[in-house]
Structures are given as structure tokens and as C-alpha cells.
Amino acid sequence: MKVAQCFAVAVLATFANVAVAGEFATKDEAMAMVKKAVGFIKDQGADKAYAEFNNKSGQFVNHDLYVVVYGLDGKVLAHGANGKLIGKDMLDAQDVDGKFFVKERVEMAKAQPTFWQDYKFANPVSKKVEPKQMYCERLAETAVCAGVYKL
Which of 4, 73, 79, 151 has its CA 20 to 30 A from that of 127? Predict the structure, then answer.
């Protein structure tokens, strides 16, 4: 293979990796989205904000990154990836390893204003259960969260 061909292959491989990486959120993007969501709730009120968080084509859904809001009682108040969960008490929800991730999240939110949590969850892009890290901020009696899938 000639040098020019090797260079072209390397450039294409680099762009392919960037395109794939761009489909998955970073921890910084998750934190920024939560901060933006908290500000949106404060500015617009919970009802308007939750409606926007639930809008799959809205400003709070980007590839595999979306906002979820839980009441500190474990009830889902908004969910950018799965509207069927809204209004449901999820305290008894377990991931594939048997971890009560919502119960843990609520307990963490009661104990500290911001935190990261590890668990496993279905990725809406890949449709596979994958390790996930969720960043949350407590706002009044809620936990406002967004997470990244650890590939």
C-alpha cells in the first residue's frame, strides 16, 4: 500500500471513530444537561419543563443522553427515553444485577446535593442493557438526572 493510501485509510478511520464517539454522551455533557434542566425547571416551572424533558425531539434529548426526573418518593416525574415510566413508582426497580437502582438514587439524593451513580440500563440507541453512570442534582423534592453509557 502506498503512503498516500495509508494516509487516506488512517484519515477515514479517524473520522469513523469520531462519528461513532459523537453518538455517545460524555460525562461532561451529562452534567451540563442536568444543570441546564435544573435551570429550565427554575425558569419555566416543573410542568412546562417536564413536558420538554419528555419530548424525544426536544432540547433535552440528544442521542443516548436524556433527562430523567424522580420524586424523592421514587416516582418518575419525567423521562426523556421512556414515557411509559412517567407516573410510576420505581422504588422496587432492579437492574440486571439485582441492584435497586432507583431506591439507591433516591437515598443518594436525600443525602447529598449532587452525585454519580453506577448501574445497568437499556441504552435507547443500541437497545442493549449496558453499564451506565447517572449524574443527578437534587432540586427541592426531586432528583434531576442524565447519564452516560460506559462502553
Answer: 73
